[in-house]
Design brief:
Order of helices and strands: HEEHHHH
Helix content: 55-70%
Number of domains: 1
Number of helices: 5
C-alpha cells in the first residue's frame, strides 16, 4: 500500500540536518546535497534551486497525504473487518507512514533553518510544515479511534483471563485447633 519510493523519500527528508540541502531527483528519489566547494556550480548547471527543492518536498508531502487518504478510505477500515488481517495491515501501514512522516517534518524544519534568510522559501516551507502538522494531528486522531477498538477487546480478554486466574486460585485457610483448656490444670 505504501510505495517504497515514498518511504525512502520520507526517510531522506528526516535526515536533513541544519544547513543541509536536498538535490533534485531524477528517478523520483531525492538525495542529500552535502556542502562542497563546487556545490553552487553543480546546483546551477543542474538547474537545482531552492524552488525545485520546495517543489520536490511538496510533491512528497502530497503523495504521503494521498496515501493516508487511500488507506483510511480502504474498505477494510470498518468495524465488520476488525478481526481481519487486512484491517490489521491497514492499521500497521498507517502507523509506519505516520512515524516516517513525523520524522520527515523535523528534516523540513531543519531545511527551513538552512534557508532562514530567504523569506519566500521560508514561507513556502511554513505552508508545507502546516500541512504536515495538520495531517499528523488528523491521522493520529483517526488512528486512536481505530486502535482503541482493538485495545478494548484485548483488555476485555485480559480481564477475562485475570478473573479466570483468580477463580482458579485455591485459598487455604489455616487450621487452628481449639486450645486445650485443661492443659496445665491438674
Amino acid at each position: 500500500m505504501i510505495s517504497d519510493k515514498l518511504l525512502i523519500n520520507l526517510k531522506i527528508l528526516s535526515k536533513i540536518q541544519k544547513n543541509s540541502k536536498i538535490t533534485r531527483s531524477y528517478d523520483g528519489i531525492i538525495s542529500l546535497d552535502y556542502i562542497s566547494f563546487y556545490q553552487p556550480v553543480k546546483r546551477f548547471i543542474g538547474n537545482d534551486s531552492r524552488r525545485q527543492a520546495v517543489f520536490e518536498i511538496n510533491s512528497i508531502v502530497a503523495e504521503a497525504i494521498e496515501t493516508f487518504k487511500h488507506i483510511l478510505n480502504c474498505k477494510f477500515i470498518n468495524k465488520q473487518y476488525i478481526h481481519s488481517d487486512e484491517y490489521q495491515k491497514c492499521c500497521e501501514n498507517i502507523q509506519i507512514l505516520l512515524e516516517e512522516f513525523s520524522l520527515a517534518k523535523g528534516g523540513v524544519e531543519n531545511l527551513k533553518f538552512t534557508y532562514q534568510n530567504d523569506q519566500n522559501t521560508v514561507s513556502q516551507l511554513d505552508i508545507i510544515l502546516l500541512k504536515m502538522s495538520t495531517t499528523i494531528k488528523d491521522v493520529s486522531t483517526k488512528l486512536n479511534i481505530l486502535n482503541p477498538i482493538q485495545h478494548q477487546e484485548s483488555k476485555l480478554n485480559d480481564i477475562d483471563n485475570t478473573i479466570s486466574d483468580l477463580t482458579s486460585i485455591k485459598v487455604e485457610t489455616p487450621n487452628f485447633e481449639e486450645p486445650d483448656i485443661n492443659m496445665g490444670i491438674v
